[in-house]
Design a protein that fits this description.
Strand 9, helix 13 and strand 10 (359-364) form a beta-alpha-beta unit. The protein has three domains: 7-138, no CATH class; 146-170 and 286-418, Trna Endonuclease, Chain: A, domain 1 (3-Layer(aba) Sandwich), CATH 3.40.1350; 180-223 and 225-277, no CATH class. Strands 7-8-9-10-11 form a five-stranded mixed beta sheet, with helices on both faces. A four-stranded antiparallel beta sheet has the order 1-2-3-12, sandwiched between helices. It has a three-stranded antiparallel beta sheet with strand order 5-4-6. The radius of gyration is 31 Å and the shape is elongated. Residues 203-208 and 453-461 have low confidence and may be disordered. It has helices at residues 7-19, 25-38, 44-58, 103-119, 146-153, 157-167, 170-178, 182-197, 213-221, 246-254, 279-285, 289-301, 342-355, 370-385, 398-421, 425-428, 432-451; strands at 66-70, 74-81, 89-96, 225-232, 239-243, 270-277, 309-311, 319-326, 329-336, 359-364, 391-396, 466-468. It is built from 17 helices and twelve strands. The chain is an alpha+beta fold and 469 residues long.
């Protein structure tokens, strides 16, 4: 928001915010210090005004550069930016944990409150009198990425909306989680082949590799498999019926139907229970759809809003791409349910160049070919050589990808916190970014202690702290 606010007006704004339960940290700390110096609480504000006047004349910078407002699981910040030759700006933002409820609504309310305090002449119900208009706030233009906009512009808006709704389906999320297991995917593929050929899967699976009953039940519970009855001719072995239940078989046997080849009664033919793959399993196994859902779920669990995630529709080549804005930095995720081949590495590099992503994450479930690894390392060195910040992560499996993404998000949030709030370091006397990270780490430790009797010494929670301005 553009607004020229002097030191006196800034102190008045902080006081009005305090009256509305937005207690500022830096000003409260200073007032406490003045109270200790004067040994008189009533004179602390008088000393504050005198120091602010001396500060402007001697220090050649503003006494109030901004402030912090801490709450239970989030904090708000307010920074006054002086721009030479132009109207000064007021910048506000929120730093929050992934589980914080409605952080954008909290930031919006904070901005509206600031506008009311600056406008003055507000009524008792918080609205303006005399027809005054609130100052307009706008999103920081630096948070808009051309690469993200180009990526989204290539997709159809309705398609993106449909993909977002589909990936948030509870049934799809549960099923994709089960498909993290390599053997579960292998078993489903074998089940699909067996079903297409018309024979029971169990008859051709070696006992040493046959899945446990628990695994099969899990696939049934998540509706990746369903039980059916296979009726086949005892003489020729060809399939007569695939029936969904025993009730359907009863209807056929009661009708006294016979085999069209040998003429035997259906009740006398070979009847066995088979495991049939569902439509859901077929969809998730195509084009790494289950992998897309898992990565999308991980991003959402780490606090990334749906509006900051874009998924490219499947192209039918077995690969998938996801682009997300995390703390103002772009993460491009290239996925494949298979090996990382040189061809995939080249396409991932091209996608990175096109989107201008700062982070390239490649997630595969198979092996990483040496040539592909060397090509990626060569490209990474080229990018760093020209002075661009770039991070590349190659993860073999979803669990590795999740751990690496948590650490990458933590690094990104720490970097952005330092960049956005370093102006307040001199006012507070310590690194504001370090203070915020410590505060949230203590909050996490307190939450963990309330749920666990004893925390392992090596345990560490790397959930990222998010920042929006």
């Amino acid at each position: 928001m553009e607004n020229d606010v002097g030191d006196e007006a800034r102190l008045d704004l902080l006081e009005k915010l305090r009256e509305r339960n937005f207690v500022s940290l830096i000003r409260s700390m200073r007032l406490k210090f003045y109270e200790m110096l004067t040994e008189d609480q009533n004179r602390a504000h008088e000393m504050e005004q005198m120091v602010a006047g001396l500060f402007d004349s001697e220090q050649r910078r503003d006494y109030v550069q901004g402030d912090l407002f801490f709450f239970n699981d989030y904090l708000l910040f307010l920074i006054f930016e002086d721009q030479a030759g132009r109207t000064s700006r007021i910048r506000a933002g929120v730093v929050y944990e992934p589980q914080t409820a409605e952080p954008l609504r909290k930031l919006n309310y904070f901005c509206q409150t600031i506008s009311l305090c600056l406008a003055g002449n507000e009524s008792d119900d918080g609205t303006l009198e005399d027809g005054n208009q609130l100052t307009t706030w706008r999103q920081d233009p630096s948070s808009f990425h051309k690469g993200f906009m180009r990526f989204v512009a290539k997709q159809d808006a309705d398609t993106l909306s449909t993909i977002a709704c589909r990936e948030n389906s509870r049934e799809r999320v549960r099923a994709a989680k089960v498909l993290e297991d390599d053997y579960a995917r292998l078993f489903l593929r074998r089940a699909r082949e067996a079903y297409a050929e018309g024979y029971a899967l169990e008859s051709q699976v070696d006992e040493t590799t046959k899945p446990s009953e628990f695994t099969v039940n899990e696939l049934l519970d998540t509706r990746l498999l369903r039980r059916e009855l296979l009726v086949s001719c005892r003489k020729t072995g060809h399939t007569l019926f695939n029936l969904p239940s025993a009730d359907a078989l009863a209807v056929i046997t009661i009708s006294q139907a016979t085999c069209s080849v040998c003429g035997a009664s259906i009740a006398d033919e070979k009847i066995e229970e088979i495991l049939s793959p569902t439509q859901l399993s077929s969809v998730l196994l195509e084009d790494a759809a289950w992998l897309v859902n898992r990565l999308h779920t991980i991003f959402r669990q780490l606090g990334i809003s749906e509006s900051e995630i874009a998924i490219e529709p499947p192209a039918g080549d077995g690969e998938a791409r996801l682009l997300a804005s995390v703390c103002g930095e772009l993460f491009l995720v290239v996925m494949r349910d298979g090996d990382l081949t040189p061809a995939l590495a080249r396409r991932a590099i091209n996608a990175k160049i096109e989107t201008e992503a700062r982070h390239l994450v490649i997630v595969v479930t198979g092996a990483v070919h040496n040539e592909a690894r060397m090509n990626l390392l060569r490209f990474s060195k080229q990018v760093e050589r020209v002075g661009n910040d770039f991070e590349m992560i190659v993860a073999e499996g979803v669990s590795v990808a999740e751990a690496e993404l948590r650490r990458a998000f933590e690094r990104a949030s720490a970097r952005v916190l330092t960049e956005q709030l370093c102006e307040l370091d001199s006012s507070l006397g310590v690194s504001v970014a370090c203070l915020i990270r410590t505060k949230f780490e203590m909050l996490r430790n307190a939450e963990s202690s309330s749920h666990m009797l004893q925390l392992p010494l090596t345990a560490k929670d790397d959930r990222p702290t998010r920042l929006l301005t």
